[in-house]
Write a structure and sequence with these properties.
Layout lengths: L3 E7 L6 H8 L6 E7 L6 H7 L3 E4 L5 H10 L5 E4 L4 E3 L3 H9 L6 E8 L4 H17 L8 E4 H6 L10 H8 L6 E10 L2 H4 L3 H16 L4 H8 L3
Parallel strand pairs: 1-2, 1-4, 2-3, 6-8
Antiparallel strand pairs: 4-7, 5-8
Length: 227
Amino acid sequence: MSKISIIIPTINEANNLPLLLSDLSSIQKEREIIIVDCGSEDKTIDIANIYGAKVFISKERNRGLQLDIGAKNSKGEWLIFLHADTRLNHDWFRKINSYLEGNKNSIYYFEFKINHKKIIYRVLEILVNFRSKFFKQPYGDQGLIIHRTTYFKNNGFRKIPLMEDVDFLRRLNQKKDLKQLNLPIFISSRKWERTNIFLQAIKNWHFRRRWLKGESLKSIYSDYYKK
């Protein structure tokens, strides 16, 4: 069994994927990289093959489904879920290795950093890391490192169109064991460059609140992606 399985959902990520896969190439042993693609029309799958990743195809554009397909086809003792537009430091695996030798009930995520120099992003980083650490609510962008036993015991990511990360974290029995690593993950600023950062944060909070009150994810999804 591999020590870790790194699971990455993709859709048209040819510009970002080579950067992340280069970061991951520093680990050659005890790992597998799994790409779960849902219909890329660019060179995403070709790039995954060049880097020796295992490629699986999802027939639906659904990130929760993609993540779960990756987990169910993995062989690693630990599962690491990453978004394709993130970056890691070259020594990231050496630094987390000691954690993987420890408590298998612990669930880890990375410190939130945005790959952009604007001061406004430093403010967002402070707010997100505060929320993650003290309210146990990290974003999916921050990655998730979880033992496979814990993942499957909690029924993994569900096939839902939105907030699959929020849904999964709410169902974790070991919420107290959710811990932030003292190690950054660098997230692309692309999704914030098209909008007002704080207005988007308020909208996201409002969408989560609607969902927690029992509103249909289908209607929330429609509003979330409304042009």
